[in-house]
Each structure stands twice: as C-alpha cells, then as structure tokens.
Design a protein that fits this description.
alpha+beta, 3 domains, globular, transmembrane, transmembrane helix, membrane
Length: 444
C-alpha cells in the first residue's frame, strides 16, 4: 500500500505525500528546463550537461509514471545535496586549517628549539600544501564536474576522484610519521620503534596507493578497506602507547607534590587522546557507513571530514601544546614577556619542559633527576659554563624513588651545564678518560 492512498493506515499522510510529490515534480521540471536551455547555447555535453539532462528526464518520467514518491538513494537531487554539503564542510575545515597552520608556523619558528624546528615545520608545511591542492580539486568537482557526478552512482563517483585519494594517502603518511616520532620521543628513543614504523607505514602506504589507484574492482574492494582499517588500528595503538607511557611515568616517577607537572601530564594526555579519537571516529564512521549503506550518497561527508582532519589534527596538537606551554611558563615564572629567561620547550611534537630556573626537573617524560647539590647550585649559573660543586664528583648517584632504573649517576665525573638558548645538555667529562660524551636529557 502506498502512502498516497486515500484509505488504510497511511490515509492521514496523503496530503503531505501529494504536496511532496508536486514539489519534487516541479523541481525536476525546472531542472530539465534549465538543462534544455543550456543545451541550446552550449556545445554538446559541455560540463556534462547532456548526461545531466538525460538523467533528469528519466527521473521526471518515473515520477509522472507513478513511481514511488520517496526518492531513491541514487536520485540526482540527493546526490547533488550530498556533494554540496560535503563541499561546504570541506571549505569550513580548510579555513580552520589555514588559521591553525599560521599559528603552528609562528610557534615553531618563535619558540621551538633548532634541532626539531625544521622537521616539524617541513611536515606541517607539506600537509598544508597537499591540503591546498586537495581543496582546489574539491572546487573543481563541485562546479564543472558536478553535472557529471550527479548522473553517476556513488561507487562511480568515487572512481572519478583518484587524485584526491592519492593526496589523502600522502597526507596520512606524513601524519603517521609524526605519530610514530611522537611515540618514539616519549619512550626515550628506543631503536625498535623506527623499525616498527618503517614496516607498518610501508605496508600501509602500499595498500593505500594500490586500493585507490587500481583499475580493477577486486583490488579496490580489497585494499581500500584494508588500508583504512590499518590506519584506524595504528592511530589507536600508537596513541594508546604514548598516552599510557606518559601516565605511567607521571604516576611512578613524578612525586605527588609536583602538582604542576601532573597537570602538564594530564593536559598532554588529553590532547593526544582527543586528537586520535576525532580522526579515528571519522574513519570508523566512513567504514561503517559504506559497509551498511553503500548506495547512499551521504557517506561523502565523513569522507570529506576524514581527508581534511588527517592534516588538521597534527597541526592542532602543535598549537595546543605550544599555547599550553606558554601559559604554564608565564604562570610559573610570574612574567608575561614573550622570551622568558628559561629555556624553551623541548617540543618533539609533545613537549618536555625543562627550565634553567628550576635546573634539571622532570619533563613530562619524567627524567632529569638531579642531586640536591646540583639543584641548589644550578640557580647561580651565568653565561657560559657553570661547574657543579666538587661534592658531585665522587660516587654521586642522582636517583628518584620509583624511576624504574632511569636515573643519572656518575663515578668521578664532572657535570657541566652548557648555556644554550635553545637546549639544555649535560657534558659528562670523565677524569679517568680523555674523551667526553654529551647526553641530552630526554623523556624516558
């Protein structure tokens, strides 16, 4: 029984259904008239207008022949509405990315130490450049190619977008490199993590390029879901490893009375989790939507969000942590100048704060435990080198309780703090050996 029947359980919906039918028929007639008018003045198939006219005539014929009043998922009007909604979403997210990109560049150039500045800056600029090319393709698809896209099924529409898919895979590769680098820094730069990252990212990127560039449907249906599920799993697992490490060290290594450091740890953990959760939720939404409603046209909206958030989230994390660090620095020092006297952030995508005014205190990774004599004497250092008291030379063991065997200890060694405006390092000069080795304080 159709809803437009005058009797039965749908009798009360007859006026609404009739009004909807008249409105849809009027829209189709108007669209057909526009296509016919454009066909008189434009060359054949300009902007795909003849295909659009043919599709509209077919839809109008189905409506006038008494087809169901509720439009199907492949209705050109629904496809056009979904594409327009995705374009508006794409433009709004790109505008947000522009603002975040400018702020991230300012933070990296102004406050980041030299050793990590260029790595992060190149990554952020590369993702922004790729996103700019992507938004240009979106404008083309939403204007000149729109008349063709509305005549295709959703599966056929996505096949016309291989350049956008390639850009997404490339952007995701850069974002995953930053993700593994962040985890590598937090775990104290172990050698195993770069090898794990190399294997995972190589396989994942190959699957992505094969799935989106393949001409056969078998490769596409196999590698596209495999690529996205792998991206989803990597984001969840690597973020959990990084956040779990920070939480563990904050509980074990940082004394309970260090409330400020615990607050910094919680802020960093929340930033990591929020970033991964937002991007991963978009991936999961797209995968489930395509799986259970592949014929729908509205899955292009989570797809658009996913392709834009892959570059936004790493940039947003740098901005959040940079602004958070400046706030903590100003609140603790009681100053509001843009260049505090203390050393700036160790911003290896996640920041480990070590200030000269507080000597070798814990960063968020929880290292930098020093002897009390070192702590008391470090406030008096000036430009150049500051040598610690001789009491630290014999049998000194700087160790914090519960630091899980991570501490600085020396036997007949002399510690010196180098006055570098961008970094804090310790030169360990052994009296028994003539050579010296430099150790940078970094997260465990």
């Amino acid at each position: 029984m159709r809803p437009s029947d005058a009797s039965g359980p749908f009798a009360h919906t007859a006026p609404i259904s009739q009004a909807t039918s008249n409105m849809n028929t009027g829209v189709l007639q108007h669209s057909t008239q526009l296509a016919n008018s454009a066909g008189k003045f434009l060359p054949q198939d300009t902007f795909g207008m003849s295909s659009y006219r043919h599709t509209m005539l077919q839809a109008l014929g189905r409506r006038q022949a008494g087809a169901p009043e509720v439009p199907s998922n492949s209705d050109p009007l629904l496809v056009m509405g979904a594409l327009n909604a995705s374009f508006v979403t794409d433009g709004m997210l790109y505008g947000i990315h522009v603002v975040l990109f400018a702020m991230a560049c300012y933070i990296l150039v102004r406050f980041q130490r030299r050793r990590m500045r260029w790595f992060l800056l190149v990554a952020v600029c590369s993702m922004f450049a790729i996103s700019t090319v992507d938004i240009g393709l979106s404008i083309k698809l939403s204007t000149t190619d729109l008349w063709v896209l509305v005549t295709l099924t959703p599966a056929q529409s996505i096949e016309r977008m291989p350049p956008k898919a390639m850009l997404f895979v490339t952007n995701n590769l850069i974002a995953d490199i930053l993700l593994f680098h962040r985890c590598w820094i937090i775990w104290g730069r172990p050698r195993i993590i770069p090898w794990i990252a190399l294997v995972c990212l190589t396989a994942d990127t190959i699957w992505g390029y094969l799935g989106h560039a393949a001409k056969t449907a078998a490769y596409q249906h196999t590698f596209r879901p495999l690529y996205l599920w792998t991206v989803f799993a990597l984001n969840i697992s690597v973020t959990a490893a990084a956040a779990g490490r920070i939480y563990y060290v904050s509980i074990v290594a940082i004394p309970p009375n260090e409330r400020r450091l615990h607050k910094i740890c919680r802020a960093i953990i929340s930033t990591l989790v929020e970033s991964a959760a937002l991007y991963s939720s978009c991936i999961l939404m797209f995968l489930l939507w395509v799986k259970y409603d592949e014929a729908s046209a509205y899955w292009v909206i989570p797809l658009t969000m996913m392709t834009r958030l892959v570059a936004i989230m790493p940039t947003l994390m740098i901005v959040q942590l940079g602004l958070s660090h400046r706030a903590h620095t100003h609140n603790h020092d009681g100053r509001t100048n843009s260049k505090p006297d203390s050393d700036d952030v160790v911003l290896d995508t996640v920041m480990s704060r070590m200030q000269r005014d507080e000597s070798l205190e814990y960063g968020f990774g929880g290292l930098a435990a020093g002897h009390q004599a070192m702590l008391s004497h470090s406030h008096s250092h000036t430009m150049g080198k500051t040598e610690l008291p001789d009491s630290t030379e014999n049998g000194m063991s700087s160790k914090k309780q519960g630091l899980h065997d991570t501490y600085l200890e020396a036997d007949s060694e002399k510690f010196e703090i180098m006055d570098d405006p961008h970094d804090i390092t310790i030169d360990v000069q052994s009296e028994k050996k003539n050579n010296a080795s430099r150790h940078s304080i970094s997260p465990v």
